Each structure stands twice: as structure tokens, then as C-alpha cells.
Amino acid sequence: xxxxxxxxxxxxxxxxxxxxxxxxxxxxxxxxxxxxxxxxxxxxxxxxxxxxxxxxxxxxxxxxxxxxxxxxxxxxxxxxxxxxxxxxxxxxxxxxxxxxxxxxxxxxxxxxxxxxxxxxxxxxxxxxxxxxxxxxxxxxxxxxxxxxxxxxxxxxxxxxxxxxxxxxxxxxxxxxxxxxxxxxxxxxxxxxxxxxxxxxxxxxxxxxxxxxxxxxxxxxxxxxxxxxxxxxxxxxxxxxxxxxxxxxxxxxxxxxxxxxxxxxxxxxxxxxxxxxxxxxxxxxxxxxxxxxxxxxxxxxxxxxxxxxxxxxxxxxxxxxxxxxxxxxxx
Amino acid sequence: xxxxxxxxxxxxxxxxxxxxxxxxxxxxxxxxxxxxxxxxxxxxxxxxxxxxxxxxxxxxxxxxxxxxxxxxxxxxxxxxxxxxxxxxxxxxxxxxxxxxxxxxxxxxxxxxxxxxxxxxxxxxxxxxxxxxxxxxxxxxxxxxxxxxxxxxxxxxxxxxxxxxxxxxxxxxxxxxxxxxxxxxxxxxxxxxxxxxxxxxxxxxxxxxxxxxxxxxxxxxxxxxxxxxxxxxxxxxxxxxxxxxxxxxxxxxxxxxxxxxxxxxxxxxxxxxxxxxxxxxxxxxxxxxxxxxxxxxxxxxxxxxxxxxxxxxxxxxxxxxxxxxxxxxxx
Lengths: 330, 330
What we know:
Chain A is an alpha/beta fold. In chain A, α1 crosses α2 (15-23), α5 runs parallel beside α11 (297-310) and α7 packs parallel to α8 (190-205). The first copy, chain A, has eleven helices and 14 strands. Helix content of chain A is 38%, strand content 20%. The longest helix of chain A has 16 residues, at 190-205.
């Protein structure tokens, strides 16, 4: 197997220079760096990260292994992986990702992850949920992103949905809306209960009786057909019997937009709409632009990566702020 | 460092039994497997994949390294990664992913990928584009997914956009539509020219003069504001001067839906809409459901993985069929 010595010999430089080319190229002149790189290319030399780490060539190069669960079913959370990558890169760390097709991970998933010898682990899910963390993973620095574990001592960055929902409704009620119609996430979703608490706090602040609110919980995450039936039930002679529609996510809002616009109603003139998620790739398509709560995927990814990189001392669930994005729909 | 011998000793089994537990657990009784796993857990033993491969413990366990470029800007292509994962899993292979933040990959990206010692490489992009493949990566079995390289001998699975566009327009013209308005992808995108060829073929089949068609190319991928202006220009007294809107992607179609519905027009009664992409997470939100061309992300991922797993003998670009998904919008 080609060694670093072969590279040094071919390039006519010292071992130290090859090491610098691999780890701190900014310390070399462009010419020297290019000479080493050419030798590496010619010999098809593959530096071993773990070997470099053992030799202590570069204490800066650390690797984060990321388990990613549910990526494909919730494509909008890709910002979480992007921010882990960007945060790591800025700190001189590397990232690799293993997709999980099921929770908990199989023994083979865990074997594969550990065989790559990561310095720290992020366990991420694309929709907020509870996960099971195998004991063997807990031997490494570990942090959860957008999920919570059965073991509540584990560090976990999650959206602060209580404050997010409270803030959005406080904004809506401050605009004068008083007859909200809610189409919520399914009751079994983790976010449902948390957001109800925020909703109740906002209603109390404005003297609205929560028992009298028009509230519907979707039966399934993808049951958007139900949105049409719920809206239908609260229209009389084509006029909505509510002044604002509060949606559990932006996809519900998107269906509602088409149904309301198709009936000749103006948003927000005839009826206002409030979303939740601010999904990448979607949120910019609403006409008029949607006021919504932002799920802080980018911040969650950044915080999780920084936890490992900086070795932060926190424990348990860490709520991450969900900003209100005020646009034109209310 | 804990070795396989330590595990065997603690579990009271042979080295062969430990090897089987790691590689072919189905060959062991559940009790024996559990005894070995407990020993592995207790000793926090980490099997090294590369060591296993060198020892020939299990020729079935191979690893695919995936470069993923542009994931975050085009979240809808996650099915590509999902299908690579599922295809690999079914064949007893493993997958790990490295995100790229830029093209071409940096030397550090390449070092990191090769240091994980993959048996084969997939270079994937989320939107069809041309990429530059560093020479060092070509020493491995390599396949491109949803992109083409400057080196045209490389195997590359790409959407068959020519046939996709042809088939969709042939379907539309067969329904009797004859006054299409096109809002195309930006002219600089790779898909633009390919789809124009399909469009011209369909127009010829129905005797439509392509020079007289209403065609607009968006100036930027995200310039959806232009959609409103283009539609406005082709309405007289609130009536569209076209019978079908042909969209370069489903996001343009989504903007158009709201603009058309907001003017009291019925889809497809007053005007039909044809999309392109069939984006996961989006395509099911259209009311009425959108007829569109499917970008075959899942098939592309599967073909790329099978190319490596089966050692297929093909070369150059391999077009993958883009099916027409007929729904209710025309």
C-alpha cells in the first residue's frame, strides 16, 4: 500500500511537508502544495483519517457521524443536515451520514456507524418524535437533533413549539382576529400537546374561552382531504364562519389556500391564514405570502454540531426558538 | 483495544461464532446470538468493516460512498438517497453519505471519502447538472446519479427528459388543447434544451408551428414572481388567451394555480395546467390534482446502486424513463 513516505519521496519533500499538505495546506506555498498533491494523485495515495488521528498529525480533524431517520418522508428538513455540515466545516470537522430506514437502529446500523470511528454522534429525525438510542451509542459523545429519547438525560435540541404557537396566536389576536378555526396536527404527534399549551396561554391572554374554539385534529399526517371537509362545514352561503384559519403545518395551509381562492375569497381580506413550519422550497410559493412559524431546523443542526465540537456542558432537552415569520396572509 | 478474541472469551464461544454473529446472525440460534451481542455490548467492541473485509469474513458486506451535492437547495430529490439505501440494504451492502457544499469536491472531500474505504462511489446531484469528477475518484468503481460529467465515458443515470416532455405534450394535444402557453425552466439549465427537443417532436406530430408558440423562459430558477407577470400578459378581460399552461416544474404550476383560482377560473374547465417533477411532499397538495411528468429519482438511485452492486457493463449516459402521471388538471 502506498505510504506517506512514497509521497514524500516522489514530491521531493519531507514527511512533515506531506503532513502539512494533508492537514494545514495554508501553511505551504501554493507551489509546494501542488507538488505534493500531484504526487498524491499519481500514487493514488489515500490518507487514513484514523491513522492521522492516532499519529496526532492534526488534532483539528474530527468526524461527526450522523444518523438520519425519516429523511425521505419529510424532505423539508434537509436544512438540518446542511447546517451540521456547514458548522462542522467551519470548525475543521468532517461529517458523514447514515440513513436509517427504521427506529431503533439495527445492530448492523450501529456496527457500521462505529466502524467509521466517529468522534461524536448526532441522532437526527426529520419530524419531531421519540427515539430509542442503543446503549452502545452512548459510549460516544452523543446529541439528539429534532427528537427526544426515552432516556431523558441525553442532550436533545428540539423546537420550542409552545412559545412558537403562543407567539403566533398572540400576533393574530393582536390584529383583532377573534373567531379562529384550527386544523391541528394529529393528536398522536409529539408536537400536538406542546402546541396546545401555547394556544391556551395565548387564548388566556386575550380572554378567549378555549373550550368554545373550533378545533379539529387531522387523523393522519397526510390526511389533507380532511381539510376540504372541515372548511366546508364552516362555510354558510360561501362565507367562512371564521375570521382566521390556524394550520398545524404549511401543507394544510396550501390546500386551504386553493380551496378558499377557488371560492372567490380573498386572503387575508375575507379570511386570514396562519401556517406552521416555513418549509424550505414551499414557503416562497404562497400567493399572498404566508405568515407562519419557522421550525428552526438550521439552528437545531448548528446547536447539535456545536455541542459536539465545543464539548458543551448541558443536559436534557434544549428548546430552540421558533421565530414568527410575518408576511401577508393576516 | 478490544478484539474479537476478547468477545469470544467472554461469550464462551469460538471465534467463528463471533464472526457469524457479526456477519451472518441468521446462522446462529437466537440464544447464541444474544450471548455474543451481550459480550460485544459489555466490552464495547467495535468491529472494523475493513478488517472484516480483509479477513474475508463476509464477502457480502460492501460499502457504497455517496457524494450528495445540492441536497439542501432541492429537498425534493431525497428519494434518490432513499432508493440507494434501500437497494443497498436488500443486497447486503451498506451506504454512507458525504454532503458536498460545492462542485467540484475539494481535496479534503475526496480524502475524507477515500479514507472510509468505500467499495464503490455514487456521485449524485439533486438537480440535473454537469459536474467535475476528480481523477482520484476514478480509481474506484464510480457512477453518476442525476448528473453528467465532463468525462463522457463515465456511467451516468439521468432523466429521459426528451421523451418525458414529448409524452406529456402528446397527451395534452391528444386531449384537444391547441393554444399552449409555456413557462420554461431557465435557458441555462441542462434540462431546457433536452425538453425543447421533446416539445418540438410533439408539436410536429400534431402540425403545430413551434415558431408561433407562446414560450417564456424564467430568468432564474426561483423567479416565480415572473409567473404572475407572464400570466397577466396573456389574459384579456380576465379570460386566458391560452387553453393549457405548460410549466417547467411543479413549483411554477403551484404559483399558477393560486393566480388562476384567485381570478375565479376553473382548472381544467377554463384552463388546463401541466406540471413537471411530481415532487415528493408537494405533488399531493394540488387541488385539483396535477397532471405532471415524474422525475425518476427513485429509479435513478436504484439503477446507480445496482450498477455498483451487480458490476454492470454499460458506459456513458443512461436515460431513465420519466413517466407521465395523469391526474385531473387537464
